[in-house]
Specification:
The protein is mainly beta and about 425 residues long. Helices cover about 5% and strands about 45% of the residues.
């Protein structure tokens, strides 16, 4: 190559380097205008020391591996477990971009992650959380996908940026441990109004069951009668419905939500909060009942996963309501609950909080109601606007019919934790 050719190549390379920042800027700009996504996430970690009590059910037969759900004469104590938990940790991408007719297209793709062990109880690294797409305008927004119901999100309002559930995601202290209604269904079409009258917001979700209309109950035989009907007749539009109406100002917030045929239950929830000085007081009232006579209330789930307990009986403390209805699992037909809580910003980065709850769950007619008493206290230390250290103590006491167990079981935990968002 001649000297002139070498000089020409050098000049071309220098010119390309000068243009590189402009090219990268144009590339980023074009992606942004097309809804280039924002990566976000949350890591919620706790180190828990658990003390469980378990109903002492007898075996269904000699040398059997299953247990009865009635006739326990007491509880097993000292079922201690130390566990690192990752409840509510997540990672996602979201974004929006302008479209025709003054509309904005938005989207979110969010998955739960288990920071403590890398895989959930199903052996998977990711679990689907809120995943949807939609459009918004001056008239409000519509989203379609998988999403928390308006009743569930009543506790975390966009009218007033607060979280009335003081111990959301905390193992054993989260309200989903002992009350129904914490649902994130599939096949949601949800409308959210703009903020009206200086603080009013309305959310309406239509949930499709996508059933076939064909009775899925096995046919009866001469030896086996036909079981409880499972007609599969929820095959129209909005077979499940969830509606919330909230209103908030700078120092107070009230909201009401009702849903029909969501997790086979009809539920009414009321929530509110008032702030005076450095103190916030709030709470919930809720009543829930099965949607049809053959339904049971769904949505009663454990919120802590690392506590293996013991295999010496059917109930190991993972769900305080399990086996208190004379059957495996939680087959309740009605539940009433009230929760009161508060927080106090002590000084600087320190915040103290408490929560107490009481739930009464009605099982089949053969047994009396199950009563659950919950309590939690905790202290937060803010490291920044997006990160905090915390510690808390939670206790759940559950007592059912004496035909099931004559002694109440008590589950307790003490934990320290780290919560940060990015």
């Amino acid at each position: 190559m001649s000297v002139q050719q070498k000089n020409s190549v050098a000049r071309t390379a220098k010119f390309a380097l000068k243009l590189l920042p402009f090219a990268l800027g144009a590339l980023v700009s074009s992606h942004a205008s097309a809804g280039f996504p924002t990566l976000y996430g949350k890591v919620f970690l706790t180190a828990n020391v658990y003390d469980f009590e378990k109903n002492n059910f007898a075996l269904t037969a000699a040398n059997a591996t299953t247990y009865k759900h009635v006739g326990a004469t007491g509880v097993s104590t000292e079922l201690d477990s130390t566990a690192v938990e990752s409840t509510g940790s997540r990672i996602g991408i979201q974004g929006d971009f302008g479209a025709a007719n003054d509309l904005t297209v938005f989207y979110r793709i969010e998955y739960g992650i288990d920071v403590d062990n890398g895989a959930n109880s199903n052996g998977r690294e990711l679990t689907q959380r809120n995943v949807f797409g939609g459009v918004r305008g001056d008239w409000g927004q519509v989203l379609v996908g998988k999403n928390d119901t308006p009743l569930k999100t009543l506790q975390t309002t966009s009218v007033l940026r607060t979280d009335v559930d003081r111990f959301n995601d905390y193992p054993l202290a989260d309200i989903g441990t002992y009350i129904a209604g914490e649902n994130r269904p599939d096949n949601v079409i949800q409308y959210t109004s703009p903020i009206l009258l200086g603080g009013l917001e309305i959310n309406l979700a239509a949930i499709q069951a996508e059933e076939t209309g064909v009775d899925a109950t096995p046919a009866a035989t001469t030896a086996v009668p036909k079981p409880t009907p499972n007609p599969q007749n929820d095959n129209g539009f909005a077979t499940g419905k969830s509606l919330s109406v909230v209103y908030g100002k700078a120092k107070w917030y009230v909201g009401a939500a009702y849903e029909s045929n969501v997790a086979t239950a009809d539920t009414l929830r009321l929530a509110g909060e008032y702030t005076f000085g450095t103190v916030k007081l709030g709470g919930f009232y809720q009543t829930s009942e099965r949607h049809e006579d053959f339904d049971t209330i769904g949505g009663l789930t454990s919120t802590f996963v690392g506590s293996a307990g013991t295999t010496l009986g059917a109930q190991n403390g993972l769900n305080p309501l399990a086996e208190w209805d004379g059957a495996a699992g939680t087959a309740y037909k009605k539940q009433d609950a009230v929760i009161v809580n508060g927080q106090w910003k002590i000084a600087g980065p320190w915040t103290a909080k408490f929560q107490v709850g009481k739930a009464t769950s009605t099982p089949s007619a053969a047994f009396k109601d199950v009563k659950t008493d919950a309590a939690a206290v905790g202290v937060d230390y803010a490291l920044s606007d997006a990160a905090r250290l915390f510690t808390y103590y939670a206790r759940l006491k559950t007592k059912g019919d004496e035909a099931i167990n004559t002694v109440a079981s008590v589950d307790k935990t003490f934990a320290v934790g780290l919560d940060f968002k990015f």
